[in-house]
Each structure stands twice: as structure tokens, then as C-alpha cells.
Known about the structure:
alpha+beta; 5-stranded mixed β-sheet
Amino acid sequence: MTGIASIPFTVVWLFLSNEVAKITFGLLAVGCFFTASYFVWRDQRRQYLSEFDRNNGAPRIEGKLTRLRTVARIDTVPIRAAQQQQQPFICDWDIFAETYLVNQSETPCTIKHFIGTATLDGHALQTAKVANLQDYEFSFVQPDGRRRAEDLVSLTGVLDGLAMQRGIGYRGWLRFELRGIRNTEVDQVQFGLVIVDSFDGRHEVLRRELEGTGEIQKRPGPRVGVL
């Protein structure tokens, strides 16, 4: 529109005899022309940079959640609630998220942070990442009917100091602490995950291909024998 506005200013400039007015309308015409040119250049530049970041420049990390389990912290469950099943109680919980990540760009990068988010009825809940996974294991039933337990592979440990290359996938578990939630409401908690790369780019994990089999359980302690 600014470019079009330069046309009438130019026409007026051609027919004016007053020098001051002629200079004024001439400057207005030139200003409108260059302003229009700038806006065209700006829009094209933004489009180019956006396309460059998407395809070449900035890392593009894609991820999906493959398993999501919520486990009560036994030491925070009230004794009376532990003795009486189906009784409402408030305790702390751990969210275990098995996550698969792959770099879809040509730019190698490392991972700086994993940010877990949780909401309940539209209200944000406080979460904190927990590094230790050694106290828990993943238990599942094999096709032959026998139960098997596996260690939880830490995704943080897998990616620590590793530059993610294009097309190579990485899988592992993340653990996040959730405090003071009722057992009757914990299933309604909506969990989200954001990945922050070494260039401070943020990548939200939106895909969910959740498997329903298997459970997270506390690793059994050492057996104590009686002499």
C-alpha cells in the first residue's frame, strides 16, 4: 500500500510550481517507495530465515513418548491409607517417561535440559527432574508368560556429552517428581516434555505412541539371612 501511495505524490510533484511544496511531495513519494521496498525485503528475509532454520540452521529434534507411568512414593503415603485400600490420600509421585528422540536436521547438537510440565484441571503443577533411576526397574510379562524385570536406561545418561547426528534415534527413561497430589486425581494429570538443545532451541515432544504393557516397580532390596 505504501508503494501505491507513492504514485499520487509523484503525479502531484510533476504539476507543482511551488518549490517548497514540490520538494515536500517529492520526498514523500521517495519515502513511500523505499518504505514499500523495505517491507517487501523484510517479509522475504523473514521467510528465508524461517526456511533456513527449519531445514539447515537450527537443530530440529523430534521425539515421542513410548511409555508413561506414574508411581506413588511409598514413604509419603499415609500409613492409614496404605493399610486401607481405596481410601483417598495425598502423597508425592514420580512420573516415569520413556522417550525416543531423533535429530532431523543437519546440525549436530547436544541436549542441555529436559523440562517436564504437568497440569491438573488447567492449573500448572510444580515438577522437578530426578536423576536417580537405580531404585526402580521396569517389569513386564514375556510372551511365554514369565515375568521379567529390566533396568531403567537413563536418557540423560545416554545423551550426556553426545552430539546427536541426523537420523540416529536414542531411547531412554526420564523421571520427574510431582508433589502433593491426591490419588483420586493423579490419573487426570497431563504431562508434557520440552527438550532444550545446546543452541537454546526448545523442542516440544508432542507425539505419544504409548504402550500399555509393563509397570515401574521399586527394585527389591537385598535379602537378609538369619544365621
